[in-house]
Amino acid sequence: MEKIVVKGGTPLFGSVDISGMKNAALPIIFACVLVNGKCTIENIPRVRDVEISFQILKGMGAVVNEVSRNTYEIDCSNIKAGTSSPALVSKLRASYYLWGTEFGRFGYTKTGHPGGCNFADRPVDQHIKGFEALGGRVVSETDFVEIHRDGESKGANIYFDVVTVGGTVNVMLASVLSGGVTIIENAAREPHIVDLAIFLNRCGAKITGAGTEIIKVRGVKELHGCTHDIIPDMIEAGTFMIAAAATRGAVTVNNVIPKHMESLSAKLEEIGVTIEELDDSIRVDATGSSFRPTRIKTMPYPGFPTDMQPQMCVLLTQASGQSMITEGIYETRFRYVDDLVRMGAQIKVDTRRAIITGGTELHGADVTALDLRAGVAMVIAGLIADGETSISNIYCIERGYDDLVGKLTGLGANVFHVTVPDEAVKECAPCE
Ligand code: EPZ
């Protein structure tokens, strides 16, 4: 079994280059299904979810060529609708972008159910609302989801009851080739929504308003190939910023867009970390810092990202006094707290709220990566704990972080990727 072992107590120093954003790359890779031609996508992170996405598309007839470590050519001209592998589709949540792309291009899709972190209920009712507004009939059975469109494709006006990244992406994908105009209201505003719109417009789509709560999609007849460069991963960048602060080190994260990091940078400054923003990098300096407590509520972008909540919780165990985190996106997202408490943290959880009593020493322990961001939070806990922390189920972490151990080692961390004799491997619930 593969594990990550961390020997704590070493502050992180130096600089790290941030990879392309997983949650931007995945919708754009699946969006290639809409394109009649070859797309060259640069700055793709080498993470397992991307590998699985390529396997899914190749199994459907797409041609995927590796040009370099982070650049791929994807040609879905001859892809067949409804032919994705249910086993592969069930390994990641982003596979549900096949719904929007196949429905958008062929008026039909049939796939297995997607995977996804099981830290909370993950409904898709808003996706279905969008497909039905666009003329689709959705059938969801135990083993598959099928969407048919009878008659000509058309535009629609769709108002999302909740801000949903996946729902916004799927309706954009389902409407770019439609025969009309689609208005998405209460749309997600995340940077990866904007990146998807830029990619699709480079392919000939007519999308305006991405990044605001109202997105307009004027349907076009066909999309042609293009070249696109994925935006930097704001969640990976934030993870390293928090790790630098937690270890009381000083780290510069390179290849970032500081504006995407504003909510985290402001929160780190508020608790006592020095932040310096440069053109495409941010310097975090927490040498000698003592951290003040704070309150955080995760919100849709530009609010504090839910995908940085577990990492921030670990940092706040080192703040003086009592901090509070409210999970504003999911009905809960605190499964990882049990392992943190076993490491010496004082945290009380009540469904959506965690009260962290800081100033506690953490000690090393054997812990499990329960999902992608919970897993990386355990690595940060190991970096500041006294002694050795062993993290199992690291498949979850490798789904969303490109060379995490190598990048941390480059910053001076004592962290190792080890293989131990197979025990009863606790299968990682497919996570993001
Ligand atoms: C994306 O998930 C990300 N995953 C998640 O990142 C991220 O946490 C989430 O957006 C929020 O930013 C990918 O991009 C692959 P949502 P998604 O639809 O699209 C509710 C990570 O760590 N909702 O924005 O599935 C939902 O229950 C992962 O990289 C409905 O009620 O999230 C949640 O409470 C974890 N009905 C809220 O909306 C729906 O039809 C936001 O979910 C859809 C969503």
Main sheet: which strands, in order across?
A: 21-22-1-23
Distance between the termini: 21 Å
Helix amount: 25-40%
The helix-and-strand class reads: alpha+beta
Beta-strand segment tally: 23
Strand content: 15-25%
Helix count? 14
Report on this structure.
Helices cover 30% and strands 25% of the residues. It has 432 residues and is α+β, with helices and mostly antiparallel strands. It has a four-stranded mixed sheet, with helices on one face. Strands 2-14-16-15 form a four-stranded mixed sheet. Strands 4-5-3-13 form a four-stranded mixed sheet, covered by helices on one side. Helix 12 links the parallel strand 21 and strand 22. Helix 1 runs parallel beside helix 7, helix 4 packs parallel to helix 6 and helix 10 packs parallel to helix 12. The longest helix is centred in the middle third of the chain and has 13 residues. The protein is globular, with a radius of gyration of 21 Å. Ligand EPZ binds next to helix 1, helix 5, helix 6 and helix 12.
